[in-house]
């Protein structure tokens, strides 16, 4: 059943805005209409914190699901967990980029085998210059034609290119355009390989730290709920219209809760106007269901279905027809027994988890209906009885 709503205007003193919101939150029956106003600095800051924490929590929950991490109690402050996880993810991203970059450079250097960059530097200091080149056969012959140098051809490189080394006591002529393989000061294979191994080790350590953070998702969820509540408070405060010393709040209240709001208004000295919603008002929807019609909630939640304020609540009817159609589609006594067995196992494994109660009850009903329909049709694991 969709609960009828009333539109209210609440008037209070402007200097009591914080206490009014706190009292309304305690009353818990008013859905405040948010106005399109510029958010305050506090609301912007809290919204940024909520967005940041939501992103971190989403990553950690994904990690928890992928790695099968078991949740555990932690004495660490939730804010410190969020800061540590954010820093670890940033450092891990930087390490992965550096590992990828240096690994690619090692692959490029691998065509020359093992060499020491410091040895090449010592040779250059003693007057013997070693130049590495990768080019075509014509480039190699052009290098051989130079005077005062020794040219050594190495094995064939990839894509038909030729690797060769030019050794001489003086710099190469500027008019000779050879395909020089340029080396930076960091292009020492052994040093670079050790650096990559160190970064991989650091990345593994960060992965372990993130696993530890992922095991404390519950504390982050509590912090997120707290920040979300604070954000709602800030947005509600920003939604007040100011008229000199008076503030005006617009919202909607379920009819059964009007007496509670009237009592709170009388106690706190608020002005209160109650009216029926207009046709063009976006009225919030409060649906109250009995135990039977509530069984269809898992399906509605999955599909994202919620009736509008001026529509009918068809939960009960959908539950009846969904159960019948489900049983007709499966239509097998044996499969129905398997569904009931799965429901029994789920009832044992998920005992004590409130979120699992309704889905398990729905599973029991669908299993029973499937057994009944399969028995009527005489089907048992695809065989007619």
Can you offer a commentary on this structure?
By secondary structure, the chain is α+β, with helices and mostly antiparallel strands. 55% of the residues lie in helices and 14% in strands. The chain has helices at residues 17-27, 41-67, 78-109, 117-125, 137-144, 189-214, 217-239, 258-268, 297-303, 315-330, 333-349, 354-377, and strands at 5-13, 31-32, 129-135, 149-156, 162-168, 241-243, 246-254, 271-275, 379-380, 383-384. The strands form three sheets. Strands 1, 2, 6, 7 and 8 form a five-stranded antiparallel beta sheet that branches. Strands 3-5-4 form a three-stranded antiparallel beta sheet. The chain has a two-stranded antiparallel ribbon with strand order 9-10.
- How much helicity do the residues have? 40-55%
List low-pLDDT spans.
Answer: none
Radius of gyration: 36 Å
Shape: elongated
Mean pLDDT, to the nearest integer, reads: 85
Tell me the fraction of residues in β-strands, as a range. 5-15%
Structure annotation, total helices: 12
Largest sheet: 5 strands, antiparallel
